[in-house]
Amino acid sequence: MASGAILLCFLAMSMSFHGSVGESLHSKTPRRLLVDTDMDTDDFFALLYLLKQNRSEFDLKEVTINANAWSDAGHAVDHLYDILYMMGRDDIKVGVGGEGGISNDGKIHPDVGGYLPLIDQSMSTVGDCRYRQAIPVRLNIDTNFGLRRSFLPQGNRRYIPLVQPTAQQVMIDTISDGLTTVILIGSHTNFAIFLMTHPELKKNVEHIYVMGGGVRSNNPVGCCQENNTSCKPSGQCGIIGNLFTGYTSNPYAEFNIFVDPFAAYQVIHSGIPITLVPLDATNSIPITEQFLSEFKQHQNTLEAQYCYQTMKFYTASFMWDSFTSGIAISIMRNGDKYNGENEFADMEYMNLTVITSNKPYGVDDGSNPFFNGREVPRFNLTKYGVHSGHVQTGLDDLFCLINGSNTGRCEVAFKVAY
């Protein structure tokens, strides 16, 4: 399969986000938006930015939630419902989960829930947590450090198991209704399943905006100031990825791609136009004390107050998904010009692929369910192909660890494809 030609955001130019001003050059018809999120903290910053746009320009239609990363399904849905109620948008349908599965022969049944990465998905919603174990305690995200119930107004909508619309139902209905721009700010599991089961609807996906991965990034976390001779940099300093819980085994991974690399591969190779906002850009816009001090002076709305109170727990982080939403709106407002002109970042085209397994390819070491003991690989994948190598089984996978080094050799990453 050919590599994906991606418009890459590689250098952040500005830290300021503007509200809903100006007019899209695309058309007088509002741009239909669908967001797929894991409802981590930075995700709802991004959602609030999109919800603040003028609906005559940008109309957020639906939101789907990936429940295989930072948050649990019920908590994530209720948090999102409260935010939508605060913003007067109870009309937005929210999809999550589903009880469907994938047969041993690779047949994808309706309403696969996205609770597991594709490599571990079977006919059950219970399975391995090879990637999810990299996620630290999720209680803080589920409750937003206790702020959700104590701060947000609460409407009547609540998560009800087996009644809640599924992620696949919401995606199919929304994209079937017309041309839609998709913004992916979590793992790609839900959208990859949609693409694999409904290729006929690709024509209705106008563009995909992705926050994820690193291409030529250098992690600034743990690095020393240039003139500080007494400082010793940590192992995270200078690595490509941001997997702070697992860089000793995988220094290349970024969380959104790491949680389901095969799903990311399906999206990147879908043939749909993609704009990628990787760590290369977001590493340059940290949330600093200076930023918080300035933000404190602009607390005129309930949503601004909620973001500010949350950011008090969120220092030493970066503007990942929120920056992506700004890039997406700015590009669309500028009329989707060929080179992705926008207010915030420099752009360039690159041919990228996603590394989903480690060389040597064709090994049978029990780490790769796509191939383990199979005469015919799952999804008819190619024997000895790029998906057939060792797949990281956990943070302490011995294959990934290097004696005497605090950074490992396993890769889940974007790779430039020539």
Automatic annotation (TrEMBL):
Gene3D superfamilies: Ribonucleoside hydrolase-like. The keyword Cell inner membrane does not apply. Residues 34-321 form the Inosine/uridine-preferring nucleoside hydrolase domain. Transmembrane segments: none annotated. Keywords: Signal. Pfam families: IU_nuc_hydro (PF01156). Belongs to the IUNH family. This is Inosine/uridine-preferring nucleoside hydrolase domain-containing protein.
